[in-house]
């Protein structure tokens, strides 16, 4: 094994994003206090609980230390929507990664379609097959050795789910699921590389050892 002390590296970023894979992508819709829309993908993201249902993503600071527009919006309005990216609109979604001004609405720039949300003000992305309307629950600033905030971890509680009929599996009453093959989610790998979920396999959980063994 090759040991690397983080303090000795010029940047931990290339190593972390190429080694910690695949990473789900939170495609986040938010609104500024003035009502300007923002769409941005974040691959430091995951589900953190189901009771209550909560999701988390981390917004790193811009060069120079300014807050990302997404976090500035959520901090002001306490609301956002997390959509999941699928292969059929990945090119349009990737267009929202650009270095745009806060006054630029990525819905307009990407050509993606707004859909009104049920319980929050930020719109959903029509092209996405799965949406989670969220209210801000917690935030946590990450500081470096110099005490400078470099990222903010954002936790949202899901107040409404939306699943497109084309990917929904509702045979389990009260426990809807998503059909992975039809869902075609994409993930992030290292660099500019995206990944696709091609196949999976089942492994049963081991039985508890019998008493006395």
From TrEMBL:
GO terms for molecular function: FMN binding. InterPro entries: Flavin_Rdtase-like_dom, Split_barrel_FMN-bd. Residues 18-178 form the Flavin reductase like domain. Keywords: Flavoprotein, FMN. Signal peptide: none annotated. Its cofactor is FMN. Belongs to the flavoredoxin family. This is Predicted protein. It comes from Micromonas pusilla (strain CCMP1545). The lineage of its organism: Eukaryota, Viridiplantae, Chlorophyta, Mamiellophyceae, Mamiellales.
């Amino acid at each position: 094994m090759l040991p690397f002390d983080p303090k000795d590296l010029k940047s931990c970023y290339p190593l972390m994003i190429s080694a910690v894979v695949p990473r789900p992508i939170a495609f986040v819709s938010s609104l500024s206090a003035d009502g300007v829309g923002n769409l941005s993908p974040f691959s430091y993201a995951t589900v953190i609980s189901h009771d209550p249902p909560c999701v988390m993503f981390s917004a790193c600071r811009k060069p120079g230390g300014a807050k990302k527009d997404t976090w500035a919006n959520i901090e002001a309005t306490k609301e956002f929507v997390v959509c999941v990216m699928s292969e059929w609109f990945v090119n349009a979604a990737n267009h929202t990664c650009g270095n745009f001004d806060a006054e630029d609405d990525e819905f307009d720039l990407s050509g993606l379609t707004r859909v009104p949300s049920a319980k929050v003000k930020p719109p959903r992305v029509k092209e996405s097959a799965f949406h989670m309307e969220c209210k801000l629950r917690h935030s946590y600033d990450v500081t470096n050795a110099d005490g400078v905030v470099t990222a903010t971890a954002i936790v949202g509680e899901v107040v409404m789910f939306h699943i497109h009929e084309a990917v929904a599996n509702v045979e389990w009453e009260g426990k809807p699921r998503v059909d992975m093959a039809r869902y075609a989610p994409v993930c992030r790998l290292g660099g500019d590389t995206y990944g696709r979920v091609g196949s999976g396999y089942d492994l049963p959980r081991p039985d508890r050892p019998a008493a006395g063994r």
